[in-house]
Amino acid sequence: MSGSRAPHMTSGAYAPPVPVRELAVPSTDGARLHVEVHGPKDAPPVVLSHGWTCSTAFWAAQIRDLAADHRVIVYDQRGHGRSPASPVCTTRALANDLEAVLAATLVDGEQALVVGHSMGGMTVMAAAGRPRFRAHAAAVLLASTGSSRLVAETRVLPLREGPARTWLSGRVLRSRAPLGPVTPLAKRTLKYGTMGARSTPEMVEACARIVHGCPTGVRHAWSQVLATLDLDHGVRKLDMPTAVLHGTADRLLPPVHAHAVVAELPRCAGLTELPGAGHMTPVEEPEKVTGRIRELVTTYVTGAGEPAPEPIKEGA
């Protein structure tokens, strides 16, 4: 759809479903967060936290499937989607926001599977030592994320590893240039940098609409945070069962991050590697990501399953 600036798909598998309930949740500093609840009120809860430049629409495929028999809670990170921009952009703010969402949507003693993709996974790492997070997180799924050295390890630019690549990568990721309309060139660029070669045009369109809908100032502000990120200590505090999922063709956050996180987790619940998938795993491999969520809910939230094997690898 050349020239389109629609924030998300309006039909098909990647069109966001209508929520059962919408909330405007205040964080500790007064920032307002757009929160949606999907699915039956008494079903096992799943909390989905999206990544940099994305929104609740990123989880459309997961919401559509899981809401049949799960209570799915999604929210827009501050400045993203329908959550207004805030002058405060820090990992502490991300943790505060996640705790505010948990407090507003779960009752005392209720536990959920908490899923974080990319910056959403970093949100979970930042909240790892927080009492409210620990009280509500029965288990965690970290998808396509990392805890440190994000700029040094990224392979978006086809250059040899070293100081020059790191410097140039930082300049690209922290760019203030507006992304503009969703043109064919914009979609090809996004696919190269963030998605696997097998991604369909519909998948690329869905991601491009979401990413291009993120305000330039918000994208830049959070890129500054990600450029100096160091949450290795947060990984070591995730002592609830924590599974990791990553695409083998992720250029933005290469698989080295997944293996580093697995090595530091106190209770790793398995590593799922998705061959050929890039960074946008919930969109690129919706059935496999949703299936892994279902497995973890069954095992750790409802308690009806066997312990997850360690590690887990998906076949081609």
Task: Describe, in plain words, how this protein is organized in 3D.
The structure is a single chain. With 316 residues, the protein is of the alpha/beta class. 38% of the residues lie in helices and 16% in strands. It has helices at residues 60-66, 91-105, 119-127, 131-136, 150-153, 163-173, 184-194, 201-212, 216-227, 232-236, 256-264, 281-284, 286-301; strands at residues 21-26, 32-38, 45-49, 71-75, 112-117, 137-143, 242-247, 268-274. Strands 1-2-4-3-5-6-7-8 form an eight-stranded mixed β-sheet, with helices on both faces. The two termini are 31 Å apart. Residues 1-6 and 308-313 have low confidence and may be disordered.
Mean pLDDT comes to 90
Rg over CA atoms: 18 Å
Total helical segments: 13
Poorly predicted residue ranges: 1-6, 308-313
Q: How much helix is in the residues?
A: 25-40%
The backbone outline, from C-alpha atoms, is: globular
Distance between the termini: 31 Å
**Class computed from helices, strands and strand pairing:** alpha/beta
Name the strands of the widest sheet in spatial order: 1-2-4-3-5-6-7-8
Largest sheet: 8 strands, mixed
Helix and strand pattern: EEEHEHEHHEHHHHHHEHEHH
User: What percentage of amino acids are in beta strands?
Assistant: 15-25%
Secondary-structure map:
Blueprint: E1 21-26, E2 32-38, E3 45-49, H1 60-66, E4 71-75, H2 91-105, E5 112-117, H3 119-127, H4 131-136, E6 137-143, H5 150-153, H6 163-173, H7 184-194, H8 201-212, H9 216-227, H10 232-236, E7 242-247, H11 256-264, E8 268-274, H12 281-284, H13 286-301
Parallel strand pairs: 3-4, 3-5, 5-6, 6-7, 7-8
Antiparallel strand pairs: 1-2, 2-4
